[in-house]
Target: Beta-lactamase-related domain-containing protein
Amino acid sequence: MIGTAALLATTQAVAQPPPASLDATLRPTLARFGLPAVAGAVVLQGRVVAAGAVGTRRAGADIPVTLTDRFHIGSCTKAFTALLAGILVEAGRIRWDSSVGEAFPDLRAGMDSGLAGVTLAQLLSHTGGVSPDDDAIIRVLLAAYGEDSLNLDAMRRWVIGQLRTRPLASAPGTRFAYANLGYMIAGAMLEAAAGATWEELVLARIAGPLGLAGAGIGPQSTMGRVDAPLGHVVRPDGSLLAMLAGPNGDVPAVYGPAGAAHLSILDFAAWAGWHAGAGRRGPALVGGETLRRLHTRVVEMPARPDAAPGTPSGGAYGLGWGFIEMPFSRGEVMLHTGSNSMNLAMVMVQPSRDFAVVVATNRPDGRADEALKALQEALFREFAPAG
Model:
């Protein structure tokens, strides 16, 4: 005999209609923009109302993608790092104004005084004065790295130690400069405060409670398998080279807090929908004051019409989120774009309508950027509620 609670749950589950298919909307973009695969989903009031995934996991092969396939989301990961910071701030493990020097007292000797005073909140809002051009330097450091017996948290600490004497590019808190290194430092501060790696913390404290079963860190496929849409690089002749999981299948692992997460388009939608709810739905990962802080603009960004795919081109920035009013959005939206130079993803959230759109592809360049922006607008226009 079925109990009342079980019967109610069953009835509610049956009452929820499945998402409408977006495949017919997505499919024309494959040929038009030369995408191997593309996926998208729309969330309204916490429910995925439409979703689709079309194309192939590997250019030149017939390996159809599915709704549960994992897509890399690049710098959209930054909002995960910012939320993790909020969780640890509420737990009393760290403060928004905790400084780099406080977080790493053993590295304080010889540390540039500017860097020592940079705060967690400044790093998360790209106002810490960290140079946006340090990616190449980090790669050189890692290539010369001789220690092979450290976990990623210790490696991030080691990178900070190697760079601690370099002066900042600008005084903390004075201007916006998009810097992946700043997010790596912020992630290392959270690791020092919590006594665990950023990877462990994000999956246990965020992905687990939100039910993001397919979420992971690093290349979206597993070694030796094409079990997810592979990222691609665009050769000089315009052809696509699929990148298998391996040493060149993602950004350097130390950059995880800046942009190394992957998840299915349905999980991506659930993540966006949680933010769109602005605390109206569980799980209550942080309190209302913290969530409002995460959803508030901090600094205006200078317009950059030539911004590379995956980096912001204008509007304002907060803690892991950009803010802008689009020509079609009828009000401000929170958004982020992410790329590891092999994939591209976009998330747009509008808490005032409890509405969100996510799109992703396994091509990284300007054509992919044009495709996803067009899809984002089309899905917003079709599904966003009036008002």
In short: Residues 139 and 252 are 8 Å apart (CA to CA).
